[in-house]
Design brief:
about 375 residues; alpha/beta; TIM Barrel; six-stranded parallel sheet; four-stranded mixed sheet; globular; disordered N terminus
């Protein structure tokens, strides 16, 4: 894939300008209230400049009546999660959706749990430290024993948590000890890199090496975490760029139409599990804590295409196994949990399950709720 053409198509500038806005929005979801003061992020335009003949604007998805969702949620959906970037989850009628857990890129002492769903805590990190402050983290850990804690969100992305590997290792050490001191039953997960490409795996190798060099023992990770986007890695281009502290001009030169390529999607997950196994981490569970379609509908990602991608990924998550690198405690499955982006987003609504303004479900929510697992045996 690294040999893909480097030419810049006609949608180069729109995506270069517009895609980072998604990550900027998520970065600002939980601004410091008492923890580290994070450096300000550069302003990014909310709407990309459209190419000829296209609007380039976020297009709300068609909605359906709430009655289109089943009155009773599907059962056996503990693995299925969603990201909630706008408002509390209780703003949306999610009871019929069938989710087992959610996150909102924050730490909450008293998170709402409609339908008894689980809430996954997330501490944000940067070169300056972490947020929220220690007191809030302690209170949340004490009030929510046994929770899963994600330490950072895309520290490998400059407009997200933007943390060098060496600095991340130090912050992770401090937070791991802090959370475990309050709640020994908590499970702590490493922050998810944006996609498990060779460039990002090299970033993680530096994190592990820095931790062991500084503290004299391997980095303790209860749950491994990764995002599984398919985005370009190139300096001064669209996509996720180059990780902070990494000297490179480019990595995987994906194109726009690769964004929902299921072969790439599966290969990246398998590569991450192989990377884990090679480092003695096969016996740890893996979550894909963010993935989905962030490209505008104008670039060919209409609701039918997005729905097809979403259900195909559900099939993959439920059936993909590998005895050599999969998680032994879960029948050698590659992935134990996953989190669709998103429940509702006004900036990049291509994957919305609900309209953020009206709170009505979209056709994609109906597809999500009515999804039926494949009846075939898990695939290797």
């Amino acid at each position: 894939m690294a040999g893909r053409k480097r030419g810049r198509p006609r949608w180069y500038w729109p995506v270069l300008l517009g895609l980072p806005a998604l990550f900027v929005a998520l970065t600002w979801l939980g601004r410091p209230t008492g923890g580290a003061t994070f450096p300000s992020r550069p302003h990014e335009p909310l709407v990309p400049t459209p190419p000829a003949g296209q609007t380039g604007r976020p297009t709300p998805l068609p909605t359906v009546a709430i009655s289109a969702l089943e009155p009773a949620p599907p059962v056996g959906r503990e693995r299925f999660g969603v990201g909630v970037p706008i408002g509390p989850i209780t703003d949306y009628p999610t009871e019929g959706l069938g989710i087992g857990w959610y996150l909102n890129w924050r730490v909450l002492v008293d998170p709402p749990r409609p339908g008894n769903v689980a809430f996954w805590q997330m501490v944000r990190v940067s070169e300056a430290g972490y947020r929220p402050d220690e007191a809030t983290i302690r209170a949340a850990a004490a009030a929510n024993p046994g929770s899963i804690w994600l330490i950072g969100n895309e520290p490998d992305v400059v407009w997200q948590d933007n943390t060098t590997p060496e600095r991340y290792a130090v912050i992770y050490h401090e937070l791991y000890r802090l959370i475990k001191s309050v709640d020994p039953t908590a499970r702590v997960a490493i922050g998810g890199v944006s996609q498990p490409t060779p460039l990002r795996l090299a970033y993680l190798d530096r994190v592990l090496a820095a931790y062991e060099a500084r503290y004299g023992r391997p980095m303790p990770v209860d749950v491994w975490n990764v995002h599984n986007f398919i985005l370009r890695e190139e300096q001064d281009s669209w996509g996720v760029g180059i990780p902070p502290g990494v000297e490179a001009e480019s990595g995987m030169l994906y194109e726009i139409q690769d964004h929902d390529d299921l072969t790439i999607f599966r290969d990246q997950l398998l590569a991450f599990r192989r990377w884990m196994a090679a480092r003695g981490q096969q016996d740890r569970p893996l979550v894909v804590s963010e993935y989905g379609i962030v490209m505008p509908t104008d670039y060919g990602f209409d609701p039918a295409r997005v729905a097809s991608f979403m259900t195909a990924t559900f099939d993959l998550f439920l059936t993909a196994i590998d005895p050599e690198v999969g998680y032994p405690a879960d029948g050698d499955r590659l992935v134990q949990w996953w989190c669709w982006y998103s429940l509702a987003d006004s900036m990049y609504p291509t994957g919305n399950l609900f309209d953020p303004a009206t709170k009505a479900p979209t056709s994609l929510a109906v597809t999500f709720a009515r999804y039926q697992p494949p009846t075939v045996s898990p695939e290797g």
